[in-house]
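Structure ticket #2291
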Amino acid sequence: MTGRDEPARLGPRDVVRVGAAGLRARPLRVFLSALGIAIGIAAMVGVVGISTSSRAQLQAALDRLGTNMLTVAPGKDFFGSDAELPEESVAMIGRMSGVLSASATGKVPGTNVYRNDHIDAGETGGISVLASRLDLPRTAGLSMAAGTWLNAATSRYPAVVLGSDAADALGVAQPNVQVWLGSRWFTVVGILDHAPLAPELDSAALVGWDVAAARLGFDGHPTTVYTRARKDAVPHVRDLLAATADPESPTAVEVSRPSDALAAQNAGDKAFTGLLLGLGAVALLVGGVGVANTMVISVLERRAEIGLRRSLGATRGQVRLQFLAESQLLAALGGVGGVTLGILITAVFAVTQGWPTVVPPWAMAGGVGATLVIGGIAGLYPAIRAARLSPTEALAAP
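Resolution: structure written out below.
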């Protein structure tokens, strides 16, 4: 053999084994440092997972209910007074090209509903009384929680369908009970499920169009027209709805798409998610500082070990690599634990809310990747410091 002996090379498996041995020597400190990383990653993955699960639930609801429903309501006239839609507006909208169906409700003024006739007239509970057309459920995407919807027979008689919130306020859980409505007894024939695209119906008592006109003084003017259009015709129908509903005063007509409100809510959720992600990033940064602190203390405590390894032929690069490996393993341990905890948090929260559990793969991969970057940065200085120790200085250290 000629010349100086070449130092033994460390393979990837050797590097991992040496790094792991250093971590096993200080289990409590390693656990606490990894916990700091795990908390930051769990917060970030949990926030992303819960937000994504919420959006998945919203998208599923929109797919089920459709984004092709438009609503028409009276606005203000030229003089600032409340406008009203013509009685013929529903029929005119129903004849539009691209419209699949149109239905309506009308506010019955001066009429309230109570659980019985002994309740003070001022305690309305925020429940509105609306006249309703029979095809409203099909157009507005309504479903029944109990009982049945109005039909050709019951719409002519004192029968009422309660929205979900109205039923709760009145203490009505099942149909076939009577409520005091417009100074008359009305029989509850059905209770609606929550209506995401028509939330105003949740706090309403709906009676037939005919009985509202005959017994409650309803004037026949609709206050909200619900319109279903073909999906490819929604923009065209939306542009023409105001002029079709009220040709004489189209500027006094308000047209909206309920799914836009849900989309706006989704945008608000995204902004809130960004704030929480920032807090998670701060927690991750704190965890990275903890890793750096652990590795610096490790170098100080293990100077004798470093000197012995150097005297036995380990190069500066190998010592540097050993401590970088320890830092990366420590951070990866926290990252994997944090991702697992974040998925668990998402799953538990989603199940309790009845949502699908969705954690984007990029969030899981990004969580582990972020920890490796944090681990590399946090371990760089301690690794360089360890590599700079000379064998004699390290062995002479107390």
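Closing remark: The chain has a mean pLDDT of 81.
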